[in-house]
Amino acid sequence: MASRLDKTQHQGFGTAPVFFTSISTILGAILFLRFGYAVSNLGLLSCLVMVLVGHLVTIPTAMAISEIATNQRVQGGGVYYIISRSFGITIGGAIGISLYLSQAISTAFYIIAFAEAFRPLFPLLETYGIVDLNLRWITIPVTIGLIALVIYKGADLGMRTLYIVVGILFLSLLSFFAGTTEFAQELDKVDWYGHIENGDSFFKVLAICFPAFTGIAAGVGLSGDLKSPEQSIPIGTMLAGIFGMVVYMFVAYKLSVSASLTDLESDPLIMTDISLWGPMVPIGLAAAALSSAIGSILVAPRTLQAIAEDKVLPNQSVNKWLGFVTKDSGEPLNSSLVTSFVTIVFVLIGDIDIVAQIITMFFMVTYGAICLISFLEHFASDPAYRPVFKSKPIISLVGAVMCLYLMFKISVTYTMIALVFMVILYQMVRRFTPNKEGLKAIFQGVIFQLSRQFQIFLQKTDIDNEEDHWRPAVVCVSRNTFKRFSAFNLVKWIAHKYGFATYIHLIDGYLSKETNKEAQKDLERLIKISEASNSKVYLDTMISPSMTSVIAQVIQLPSVAGKENNMLMFEFSKKNNDDGLKQVIDNFKLMSVTGNDICVLASDERNFGYKTEIHIWLTPKDLENANLMILLAFIIIGHPEWSNAKITLLACFPDAELEMRREQILKLIKTGRLPISKNNVRLISRADNVDIKTVINSTSQDADLTIVGLRLEALKKVNEQVFYGYDDIGDVLFIHTAQGKDIS
């Protein structure tokens, strides 16, 4: 099957077709049929404002299209290609279907407008006995004839016809501007504010007239047939947009000074009475409507064919059928047939105002998406985004915001229907399309920029040095990641809501090509695990032959919070005495250099049990660790997996101190607003000759996590024996605080 996206299929058109396709659609049916209505209902000044407001959408869109087109190779599908290659096939496909419908319905709109050009002949025909005339007598045959010609001759016929009708269009405008009326000769001064009583609202008039401005993107649809789309699209599109806006303003002025408000309101073809040669206006209307119809019927099938090429539609047989192009001319035959059917359906509706408002909503969605893409590309600052033509991000943002604002102002009902329709389309495409790439890349850039700015802001504010604003920024190092997940789970709980966490999987050895590949594979495994567990932990791997080297690097790592890390965590198995614990202990002095808190997790086979109870043990010798122990317990139960957990605080002191300690602990809980019930504060009397480990083993057998203080003095005396002897309880977290934490 020949591909419409293949550059070899290009017809080799230059910039002129882009300009003429766009300008013939801009200066089309609305200009001749509804601008008198606009001036009479709004007044001249408000009408000029309406033109400016409409172009606050279309000019930013034109600039965004030109920008994106000069950054990438724009192929068949035009605007759809730009959206899908920037936002990805999933979102691009949904917007592309909406865009296609707007283009196909536009064809019907222009054919109805073409028929309106023959209304001046109706009185003449009635004199010959032809009465009860209906525009469908014209629209149906014209639709069939136009479809047949385009399918038979394709884009080449369209371009040749386009030049002829554009010439007629300009002659009709010259005739209009050259004409005058008695009203104009008798006018003393321009009435900038006058309008008819009880006229339509500003936004209703805008909804009806907005399709006139949408032609600005019509030429982009020919991208697959252009010799140099990256050059032709920006020049042709921008020229058409600016030229069209200027012409509309002059037309509004000419109408207001040439006819009364009543005549402007009642006569859709009032320009005929103003024109130097009256018949030139219906001829120009017919030419403009016909050229716009040709442009739309050329572009719409190419958009649909490009959508099918990307396999966006649910059924692959349908995609293949719609993606078919003829071998000789490369025309999207089947897509043209479908477009013809859609066109005929809306031609039968016959009401130009209803069709205009439907088109407006579809185009607003499309243009808003294009402007949003341009803004996000600027914000993401991707080095790969290097357009030759550069817009300003604020201009694109204005275009996107204006689209959404105008949609709601025009009609909340229509807007909600359009948005629901887009959501349904998105879900359909998301479910069935095999290619979901694209969106990820642009939003990764946006998130990167947001993260970078936030990190710089946090670093400058330096709030983490205030004790009452402390939050954990923990780095966990483990070589046993794929043997047990206890350490990963613990940092996942800490990072869920209140803290930040970096998890580093340690690979023993020296950095080489082979170990680097191993590290990449392990990182991919880690990311899959993280996604499955819905964690908010930053993951990485590190290759090193020495724990000392690892720790030296880790304590200098920047935190994902934009601040320095303030906590180091290590893990070992209670059942494996040779699990690297001694290497960790040997480096405690190095760890203390930067003032980091230190946590060591003794993993048990219970794997945190049912996650319903955490025990915190306080003893006279490690009260300096108490606040951090309580804070971490509070942070851990903030995770949904610990939602049913309670914290039990166990204070083991000599009898003489018990009552005093009780008052201290209860005051601490109250002032610190800690979720610990008075009933969960237990004071245990301990004789001097009783080993604290024995007390903990007998009391915390059913605890899912036991938190114990860690004193460096004890570590120096007995080394790793500090961590052993807790065989009868589950997982144990040892905590040493480097700096005091105020939890009140």
Describe this structure as you would to a colleague.
The protein has 744 residues and is an alpha/beta fold. The protein folds into 2 domains: 15-300 and 352-440, Amino acid/polyamine transporter I; 468-736, Rossmann fold (3-Layer(aba) Sandwich), CATH 3.40.50.12370. Helix content is 56%, strand content 9%. The chain is built from 30 helices and 10 strands. α22 links the parallel β1 and β2 (500-508). α4 crosses α19 (393-410), α6 (89-116) packs antiparallel against α15 (280-309) and α15 packs across α16. The longest helix has 30 residues, at 280-309. The chain is elongated and about 125 Å long. The two termini are 73 Å apart.
Spatial extent as radius of gyration: 36 Å
The averaged pLDDT comes out at: 81
- Summarize the biggest pleated sheet: 10 strands, mixed
Uncertain spans = 1-10
CATH architecture of the largest domain: Up-down Bundle
In what order do the strands lie side by side in the largest sheet? Answer: 3-2-1-4-5-10-9-6-7-8
Q: What's the CATH class of the largest domain, please?
A: Mainly Alpha
Total domain count:
2
End-to-end distance: 73 Å
CATH superfamily of the largest domain: Amino acid/polyamine transporter I
Specify the number of helices: 30
CATH topology of the largest domain: Amino acid/polyamine transporter I
> How much strand?
5-15%
What structural category characterises the helix and strand content? alpha/beta
Shape: elongated
> Helix coverage percent of residues?
55-70%
**Total number of β-strand segments?**
10
GO molecular function: chloride:monoatomic cation symporter activity
Domain Amino acid permease/ SLC12A: 18-436
Subcellular location: Membrane
Membrane topology: Multi-pass membrane protein
